[in-house]
Amino acid sequence: MAGRHFLQIPGPTPVPDRLQRAMHRAMEDHRSSAFPALTRSILSRLPQVVHQTDGEAFVFPATGSAMWEAALVNTVNPGARLLAVRFGQFSHLFIHTARALGYQVDVIEEPWGEVADPARIEAALAADTAHEIQGVLLVHNETATGVTSNVAAVRAAINRAHHPALLFVDGVSSIASLDFQFDTWGVDCAITGTQKGFMLPAGLGILYMSTKALARVDACTMPRAYFDLRPMRTNNAQGYFPSTPALSLLYGLDEALTMLLEEGMEAVAARHRFLANGVRAAVAAWGLSPCAKRVEIASDSLTAVMVPEGHDARQVIELAFTRYDVSLGSGLSEVAGKLFRIGHLGDTNSLTLAGALSGVEMALCDAGIPVTLGSGVGAALSQWRVTA
Ligand SMILES: *Cc1c(COP(=O)(O)O)cnc(C)c1O
User: Fold this and answer.
1) Which atom of ligand 1 is nearest to the CA of 67?
2) Which end of the chain is more exposed for a tag (fewer CB within 10 A), N or C?
3) Taking 80 as the threshold, does the pLDDT of residue 214 lie above it?
4) What is the mean pLDDT of residues 119-133?
5) CATH code for the domain defined by 17-262
6) Does the pLDDT at position 388 exceed 90?
7) For ligand 1, which residues put their CB under 6 angstroms from it?
């Protein structure tokens, strides 16, 4: 098809030209005396994205889900107990990873479309008087359903229970898009990948560790090799990596950090809120419901839209793709066929989204879901027009 494709899935997100150019590099010697400048530029600025002054950031050639494993195997001893909340496919996979590694995971189930309930976390931790639970696993922004948990409230619940558990936060679809306050929220391990808010191809996993979490690394008895942070820290301290770094992606990440920090993380979060408000207005104007059960928990990085009973969201996605060149996210697992997801994170703006929403409207009509053409787009434009 001529013209541009609208990649409106919640990751990978479109890679801006500036980052494409930054990655277009000849290979170089990653053991040369010139190399540490790049490592230092990245590792010194990654913490600013999440407002981290406590601890360190790490980068692995890997993806977001690999960082679940990296965080756990460096801090939690074999067979230990963990507490997790499940409210979507990504929180489910985080739990699956922990169990596959041999940990015992107590699971608090929440309906899909809801978020973590701090009161239930507090009760579960208060009941653990022997302090067996080593960590709380939380997905900040559940990409399967388009909801955002309140990390600060979860930390407050852990503190109210006077429990020493570490707080592990999956920030794959929030970090570099939504507000993320590593220090203030008392996060111990936060993880992400490069293909969402960082606007890069998949291929790097990013792990943030607090001083408290780092203090566990040396004594941790969990077997680990590739994800062992000990050689990583020794090498990083000299500006190097233990194995061959993904050079192109590192150049991209360095430039992505410049872009994000030039804009400012507050402005980045405000931009995502602004765009999300328009998409939410469109969904309401179509007469459809978001998967998010309450507007206060609706995500600013993506919107999951329920299709009416008797319709299959997969048909809407296929029509949008084949007829209008728009890629939408699908419903995963429990919500397969029940919803489609519109990504509005990373390198996007109101007119790009207006185009994507136009494609969604036509696909909805084509699938026999009655929406008035222009209704959602008009509602979004009313949110986005600059009236001041
Ligand atoms: C995308 C995503 C992941 C998986 O990341 P990969 O890079 O695909 O491994 C994990 N958690 C959340 C919340 C995500 O959105």
Assistant:
1) 9
2) C
3) yes
4) 98
5) 3.40.640.10
6) no
7) 11, 63-65, 90, 139, 143, 170, 172-173, 193, 202
